[in-house]
Amino acid sequence: MKRLGALLVIPLLAALLVTPAHAAPAPERVQARDVRGVGVWEMRGVTKALRKSRAGWYHAWTAEPPAYVGRTRAAFVPMVWGAGSVTDDVLAAAAQHGPWLLGFNEPDLAEQADMSVDEALALWPRLESTGLRLVSPAVAFGGADAGGWLDRFMTGAEQRDLQVDAVALHWYGGDWRPRRAVAQLTDYLDAVHERYAKPVWLTEVALMRFDGGARVPSARVQARFVKLAGRALARRPWVSRWAWFGLPAPAKGPSSGLYRPGARPTAVGKAYAALP
Questions:
Q1: Which has the closest alpha carbon to 275: 225, 240, 227?
Q2: 3-class SS string, 104-139
Q3: What would the pLDDT profile of 93-124 be if each residue is shown by its tens digit?
Q4: Which residues have C-beta within 8 Å of that of residue 124, sequence separation ≥ 6?
């Protein structure tokens, strides 16, 4: 969902030991807190907010940690945003922040990375050259659909013997009844996992509707969803990482963000920080 340059894991020493490109990744030993993360963009007090959130990791739709984020416990995970990001400099920067690398951002949307499956497959060996474990491009929707963008990418990757160690997804729920929304989310995740039999990274998730512009439910509803979704995701050990959208919230008004400027928690921020 995030546009490059606009608002919209934990690094291990073992990452320096590059395994064969297509070997299955060794199982991760990840603490429950380290599974949950958050998408981050610039805001006054962003470092303090990231610390207060207790997130185990974060991404910023960039290949290297942004300068506006200071020292935190949360690990940074790099991303190669789109076709224009596949450069020697970007890949070299990403390689310094492994062991994981997130693939292209919503290539199935014209307003995001906007890439054909063939284009993504042709560029993928460049991502492999980093020696990092690779997470698939994160589709906006239809990840479990036969013949959908992700399905065609995964089929092509298998045919070309390309490395894809985990599958990335985005999910924005339009049903603002928290229990039903969680059921819809987990049904989707279960279907994706059944189709590809790989670890899943849910790199953007929130309750949000896009009819007539992005709209969110009340803070109480969003907070309830975070609490229930966190429990449901914890029961699925193959959900390797998930990241709330996002850490910042505007100074006033409704938002799915966790913290307002100055690291002031919203209701959903308090619910997120209270997760185990």
A1: 227
A2: CECCCCCCCCCCCHHHHHHHHHHHHCCCCEEECCEE
A3: 999 999 999 999 999 999 999 999 999 999 99
A4: 103, 134, 157, 162, 163
The two most distant CA atoms of the chain are separated, in Å, by 50
Other Cβ atoms less than 10 A from the Cβ of 152: the count is 17
Domain regions of the chain by residue span: 29-273
Q: What is the pLDDT of residues 230-245, one digit of tens each?
A: 999 999 999 999 999 9
- Calculate helix-pair angle for 178-196, 219-234, nearest 10 degrees: 40
How many residues in total does the chain contain?
A: 276
Average pLDDT for residues 68-73, to the nearest whole number? 97
- The full DSSP string for 24-69 is PPPPP---HHHHEEEE----TTHHHHHHHHT-SEEE-SSSS--TT-
State the burial class of residue 98 (Cβ atoms within 10 Å of its Cβ: 0-12, 13-18, 19+): buried
- For residues 128 and 228, give the distance between their C-alpha atoms in angstroms, rounded to a whole number: 36
Q: What is the pTM for the complete model shown?
A: 0.89
Specify the CATH superfamily of domain 29-273: Glycosidases (3.20.20.80)
**Range 263-274 average pLDDT:** 98
By C-alpha distance, which of 230, 232, 233, 234 is closest to 222?
A: 230
CB within 8 Å of 17: residues ≥ 6 apart: none
Cβ 38 vs Cβ 55: under 8 Å:
yes
Tokens of 140: 């906006």
